[in-house]
Amino acid sequence: MDSGTGQNPSLGKTIFFPGVKLCTRTYDSSTLLDRSVVDWLLEEENPGVKYLALTKLLGTSPRRKEAVEARTKIHTWQPIRKILARQKRNGGWDSGRTWYLPKHKSTVWQLLILSQTEIDPSIPSVRKMCDYAFRFQKSSGAFYSGTTRNRGDDWARLAGCLNGNVVAALCRLGWAGDPRIGRAVDHLLSFQEGDGGWGCRSFGYHRFDKHSCFMGTICALDGLIEYSAHSRSSDVRRAIQGSCEFLLMHRLYKADHHGWKIIRPDYVRLRAPWLVAYDILRGLRAITRAGITDDERMKDALHLLLAKRNSKGRWVREVPWPSATYSSFGWVGREDKWVTLNALLTLEKLASNG
């Protein structure tokens, strides 16, 4: 790569994702990736996006000079530097009793955010954060929130959202082979529901839900997908298939028993990186990573995602980044590199598997 221009000489004017075929329609023109979009993602301003664009979108080896240089800058990028500056000596960002509250400022939220930036897990502050996270794991493998006095009654023990997100984050940061993650995965599998998804049965009104929760399901699915990259467990594969089926039977955002109405307006509003919320981009990204690329029930969500791309080939962030955080990772209404990258990675999966 020419470090002076930020352009990759291996790219022509455009890159095509050839033959992206879904439900008898081919999206050759719709998945055209313009050189200007690539150059935008490869700008120095956001080293995490640059590294992911290089290694995940363009297939550059993580050992190549430009990839190594990008990754070494991630922990010094201003939004991440602000987060790390608030870390305590014990590795956390909280009182030590709960790592879940205050929401978006305590440790679990920093774990989720940092794990999606491709930050180097060997950095001492990251290692300390992960060690701290394991303090909130029970012998059963369950992660708890610490928001109740009795761990046995902690709502998070049967929450697909917290347990799945923590498994995903720790796997991204290199802990997939640790026996404690294996126990966490076994625990996650133990409370998958009959419809293929996950809920939060130990939390208040959710005890009476008639079916699984989209947020619990997508977080658990993300965790299992990250873990499956390091494990050939048939139980994990079946669980992934079941949770993908839960999303697909709802066409990723519609009520199957109510005339296919949109379940919640925020399900069609794009955002990234992700915390606990669900949207169609997160759903499409997960199921395509799971290897599902030609299911008729993906059609509506994919058409909607493509329709949201602007004339410059980019996507806009449609949900505000939580205000109660140490730094912002995007602004609503603006073209967003995180959203655009994940949209393009989804389309790339459709092309490569199509």
| CATH topology value of the domain at 80-249 | Glycosyltransferase
Average pLDDT, to the nearest integer?
89
Strand order of the largest sheet: 1-4
CATH architecture grouping of the domain at 80-249: Alpha/alpha barrel
Q: Characterize the biggest β-sheet.
A: 2 strands, antiparallel
Shape: globular
Q: Which CATH first-tier class of the domain at 80-249 would you pick?
A: Mainly Alpha
Q: How large is the share of residues in beta strands? A: under 5%
Based on the structure, what is the oligomeric state of the protein chains?
single chain
**How far from one another are the termini?**
29 Å
**Computed structural class:** mainly alpha
Which sequence of SSEs, written as H and E, runs from N to C?
Answer: EEEEHHHHHHHHHHHHH
Identify low-pLDDT runs. 1-31
**How many beta-strand runs?**
4
| Rg, nearest Å | 20 Å
Number of helices: 13
Could you estimate the helical fraction of the residues in percent?
A: 40-55%
Annotate the secondary structure layout.
Blueprint: E1 14-15, E2 21-22, E3 25-26, E4 33-34, H1 35-41, H2 47-57, H3 65-72, H4 78-85, H5 107-115, H6 124-133, H7 160-172, H8 179-190, H9 214-228, H10 234-248, H11 280-289, H12 299-307, H13 337-353
Antiparallel strand pairs: 1-4, 2-3
Helix pairs in contact: 2-3, 2-13, 5-6, 5-7, 7-8, 7-9, 9-10, 9-11, 11-13
What does this structure look like?
The protein has a domain at 80-249: Glycosyltransferase. Helix content is 41%, strand content 2%. The chain is built from 13 helices and four strands. It has helices spanning 35-41, 47-57, 65-72, 78-85, 107-115, 124-133, 160-172, 179-190, 214-228, 234-248, 280-289, 299-307, 337-353, and strands at residues 14-15, 21-22, 25-26, 33-34. Strand 2 and strand 3 form a beta hairpin. Helix 7 runs antiparallel to helix 8 and helix 9 runs parallel beside helix 11 (280-289).
